[in-house]
């Protein structure tokens, strides 16, 4: 796969297409500032896949990690972690298979980002929430088991400032849901074509009935509108005191076949009304991996920028030491 489509030149966008709320600039200017804090060129990441036993889910859960090229030779060096959450009907290997690794490796080769670990858990069709029935507590697994497992198993920097979320479609929903719900664990949350709908259709259109069956696994059968609304990022965003300091970036496709761009615009309006700094972009494209690959540069560069700021703060002369792991994680 060539790289010509992975880092398209940023164009002047209309107000509807690109907005930056309180972060100092719109995305084109944000990316133009990269040389000020970018790293030297780095080699490609190395994939490792395995499984983590979960007492909460009662089974093992597959996962992959993309490790920095120098991971096995860098001694005791520790790295920030970006948790990338996959979309519906995908798994922990989808990011690599559909071009995500190629995007990151290209940015590393150009020195536009530095080294960090990408952790990719298999989430099935969970939407990254605890199911209404209580049978599949995926959110509890992710927060209480998966993050501690990654911190134990790999040389991470186990602090909020060096931990970010990203994801696409269902994973974009999950990234926003988890970031807004657990902002004491994450400094950045990003989302590409996030599955945002203010109200689920009732009844579902015939062509989308299959998705109704999928949603029932997490949100009740029949689907509980109350539970859907309670977990929605559109609801969580109305309570900014719960996610102070969280850096937020999300991108929607103008021609999303599910209409998720309308939900993204609603999220932008809510965050703006609540005076929450954020970056929102609306770009040409549809609900597919072509859009994700073409726009992932924005999320990865965004996360890296704040990883570097956290690193600089931790190593400043007045700093007492590295950021402490968050108390919400068991064992810390």
Protein described:
The chain has 332 residues and is an alpha/beta fold. It has one domain (18-312): Rossmann fold (3-Layer(aba) Sandwich), CATH 3.40.50.1820. 33% of the residues lie in helices and 17% in strands. The chain contains 10 helices and 9 strands. It has helices at 27-32, 94-97, 100-110, 138-153, 170-181, 209-219, 225-231, 233-236, 260-273, 289-314, and strands spanning 18-21, 46-54, 59-67, 81-85, 117-121, 163-167, 188-192, 247-253, 278-283. Strands 1-9-8-7-6-4-5-3-2 form a 9-stranded mixed β-sheet, with helices on both faces. Helix 9 (260-273) links the parallel strand 8 (247-253) and strand 9 (278-283). The radius of gyration is 19 Å and the shape is globular. The relative contact order is 0.17. Residues 1-26, 28-37 and 317-332 have low confidence and may be disordered.
Short description:
This protein is an alpha/beta fold and 332 residues long. The protein contains ten helices and nine strands.
Characteristic terms for this protein:
alpha/beta; disordered N terminus; 17% strand; 9-stranded mixed sheet; 332 residues; globular; Rossmann fold
Strand order in space, largest sheet: 1-9-8-7-6-4-5-3-2
Q: Give the class-level CATH name.
A: Alpha Beta
Mind telling me the CATH superfamily name? Alpha/Beta hydrolase fold, catalytic domain
| H/E element order | EHEEEHHEHEHEHHHEHEH
> Helix fraction?
25-40%
Q: What is the CATH topology assignment?
A: Rossmann fold
| Distance between the amino and carboxyl termini | 43 Å
* Number of beta strands: 9
Please describe the biggest sheet, giving its number of strands, its sense, and whether it closes into a barrel: 9 strands, mixed
Number of helices: 10
SS-derived structural category: alpha/beta
As a percent range, the share of strand residues is: 15-25%
Corresponding CATH architecture: 3-Layer(aba) Sandwich
Unreliably modeled segments: 1-26, 28-37, 317-332
Radius of gyration, CA atoms, in whole angstroms: 19 Å
Mean pLDDT: 87
The total number of structural domains is 1
Question: What would you call the shape?
Answer: globular
